[in-house]
Write a structure and sequence with these properties.
single chain, 380 residues, alpha/beta, Aminopeptidase, Alpha-Beta Plaits, four-stranded antiparallel sheet, 8 helices, 25% strand, elongated, binds zinc ion
C-alpha cells in the first residue's frame, strides 16, 4: 500500500486547525473537505446534514459497504498552544484533535481512491459535524437514512496519554460510557429558623435525597458494573436563621449499558418523587440524555487488532482501557455493528485543555491503520 505524503497530511491538518469552527458551524471545514474529495475524481459526494460530508468510493468489484467516520468540529476554548498555525478565531480551537481525525480520513480516502481497482465493495468516508455538542451530529446522519446499506462503522480518536503512533484497541462491549445529567429543584416552604414547624425544609429533604442516591450504585446496580452517580451541585439558603424555600441539585450519571442506564434513571425518579412527597414538598426534575455508550463488536474488535498490527507493527498495538468520555459515534450502532479505537499522539496534556496538541508523527500510523481496517473488512 502506498500511503499519502506526510506533507499533504500535515498541510491539511494545519489548515483545519487554523480555521477551527464550532459544532454545527463547520461550513468552511466541510467545504475544504468537499473540494479535496472532489479533486480525487472518483468519489461521489452526499450531504446528509448542513455541514456534514460523506464521500462514497465504489470499488471496481461488488461487495460489502463499510464506513469510517471522522468528526470535524472544534471547541469554545481559547487556544494556548503557541503554535504558528493556532486557531485564527481566538474563542474556538481544536482542543480535541478533530483536525487530526479529518486530515487522516482525507488521507485514507486519497489512498483508497487510487486503489479503486483492488477494492471489493463500497467505502463511506463520513466527515461528521458536531460531535462535541449534544444532541450530536451523528444522530442527524443516522436519521437522514443515507447509511442504511452500511455493514460496519469504524472510528478513531487521538489521545495524548498514550505513546505517539501507538494504536489502542478498546474493550469489546462498552468502549466508552453513557453520559446523562439532571437538575433538580426541591420546592419547600420558607420559614423563620426558629419556627421549623411552619416551614418545609428543602435542605433536609435534599440531604436525604443525596444519601438515598448513593444506594443506586451500592445496592441496585450489578456489582462490578462501572456506574457513577455524582451530585456535583447542591445549593440552598443564604442566612443562618432562615429555612430556605428551595434547594437546587445537579448531577452527572455515567453507565456502560442501556439496561443500567434505564435502571439508574428510574431509581433516581422514584427516590426524588417519594422523598419529596414524604415531606410535603414538590419538585421539578429536568433529566437530560446525552450520548449512549460506544459498543465495540467482538468480531470487529478481533479483526481491527490484526489490521492495526499489519499496518503499524505488533509492537505499536496495545489493549487500551475503556474511554471514560462519551462519544456520539455510539449512535451509528443503531445501523450496524461498530468499532472504535484510539491513536496515541501524546504530550500528556488532556483533550479539551487549552494547551492540547498532537504530535504529527502519529498521523501516518493513523492513516495506515484506517486503510488496512477498511480493506480487511471488505476482503473478509
Ligand atoms: Zn472532545
Ligand atoms: Zn473528540
Amino acid at each position: 500500500m502506498k500511503a499519502i505524503s506526510t506533507a499533504d497530511l500535515i498541510k491539511w491538518r494545519r489548515y483545519i486547525h487554523e480555521n477551527a469552527e464550532l459544532s454545527f458551524k463547520e461550513e468552511n471545514t466541510s467545504k475544504y473537505v468537499e473540494d479535496i474529495l472532489k479533486g480525487l475524481g472518483n468519489i461521489e459526494i452526499i450531504k446528509p446534514a448542513k455541514t456534514s460530508i460523506i464521500g462514497i468510493l465504489k470499488g471496481a468489484k461488488p461487495g460489502k459497504a463499510v464506513a469510517f467516520r471522522a468528526d470535524m468540529d472544534a471547541l469554545p476554548i481559547k487556544e494556548e498552544t503557541g503554535l504558528s498555525f493556532a486557531s485564527k478565531d481566538e474563542n474556538v480551537s481544536h482542543a480535541c484533535g478533530h483536525d487530526a481525525h479529518t486530515a487522516m480520513l482525507l488521507a485514507t480516502a486519497t489512498t483508497l481512491s487510487k486503489m479503486k481497482d483492488q477494492i471489493n465493495g463500497t467505502v463511506y468516508f463520513i466527515f461528521q459535524h458536531a460531535e462535541e455538542q449534544a444532541p450530536g451530529g451523528a444522530i442527524d446522519i443516522v436519521k437522514s437514512g443515507v447509511l442504511k446499506n452500511i455493514e460496519a462503522f469504524f472510528g478513531m480518536h487521538v489521545l495524548p496519554n498514550f505513546p505517539v503512533g501507538h494504536v489502542g484497541i478498546l474493550p469489546t462491549g462498552a468502549a466508552s460510557t453513557t453520559s446523562d445529567e439532571f437538575t433538580l429543584s426541591i420546592i419547600g416552604k420558607g420559614s423563620h429558623g426558629s419556627m421549623p414547624h411552619l416551614g418545609i425544609d428543602p435542605i433536609v429533604i435534599g440531604a436525604e435525597i443525596v444519601n438515598a442516591l448513593q444506594t443506586i450504585v451500592s445496592r441496585n446496580v450489578v456489582p462490578g458494573e462501572m456506574t457513577v452517580v455524582t451530585i456535583g451541585k447542591f445549593q440552598s439558603g443564604n442566612a443562618n436563621n432562615v429555612i430556605a424555600d428551595k434547594a437546587e441539585l445537579g448531577a452527572t450519571i455515567r453507565t456502560t449499558s442501556d439496561a443500567t442506564r434505564k435502571l439508574v434513571e428510574s431509581r433516581i425518579k422514584t427516590i426524588v418523587e417519594n422523598l419529596t412527597k414524604a415531606h410535603g414538598a414538590t419538585y421539578e426534575l429536568n433529566y437530560v440524555h446525552n450520548y449512549p455508550a460506544v459498543q465495540n463488536d467482538s468480531a470487529l474488535n478481533i479483526m481491527v487488532k490484526k489490521s492495526a498490527a499489519t499496518a503499524v507493527g505488533q509492537a505499536n498495538v496495545f489493549d487500551a482501557p475503556m474511554m471514560t468520555a462519551s462519544e456520539d459515534f455510539s449512535y451509528y450502532n443503531q445501523v450496524a455493528p461498530q468499532c472504535f479505537l484510539t491513536l496515541g499522539v501524546g504530550n500528556g496534556v488532556a483533550n479539551h485543555n487549552p494547551k492540547f496538541n498532537i504530535d504529527e508523527k502519529a498521523l501516518q500510523n493513523g492513516v495506515k491503520t484506517e486503510v488496512q481496517i477498511i480493506l480487511d473488512f471488505l476482503n473478509r
